[in-house]
TrEMBL record:
One biological process term in Gene Ontology: siderophore biosynthetic process
InterPro entries found in the cross-reference section: MbtH-like_dom (IPR005153), MbtH-like_sf (IPR038020), MLP_fam (IPR037407)
Name of the protein in its database record: MbtH protein
GO cellular component, one term: cytosol
SUPFAM superfamilies, sorted: MbtH-like
Domain MbtH-like: residue ranges: 2-44
Domain of life: Bacteria
Stored Pfam families: MbtH (PF03621)
Database matches in PANTHER family: ENTEROBACTIN BIOSYNTHESIS PROTEIN YBDZ
Length: 58
């Protein structure tokens, strides 16, 4: 099965089946492939797990 990487407005990433429409509030991150490839990409780019709205707060 092919998957896609999706991202929301809080810059949180998720794995999504390529044949399904995105869930509300999520958009394509421009990466698709196997589950392993997508998870590897997420692991490389999502280095701060905090939602965007919480970053920079002390």
């Amino acid at each position: 099965m092919t998957h896609r990487v999706v991202i929301n407005d809080e810059e949180q990433y998720a794995l999504w089946p390529a044949h399904k429409d995105n869930a509300p509030g999520w958009r394509d991150a421009g990466v698709s492939g196997t589950e392993e490839e997508c998870l590897a990409h997420i692991g490389r780019v999502w280095t701060d797990m905090r939602p965007l709205s919480l970053r920079g707060r002390s």
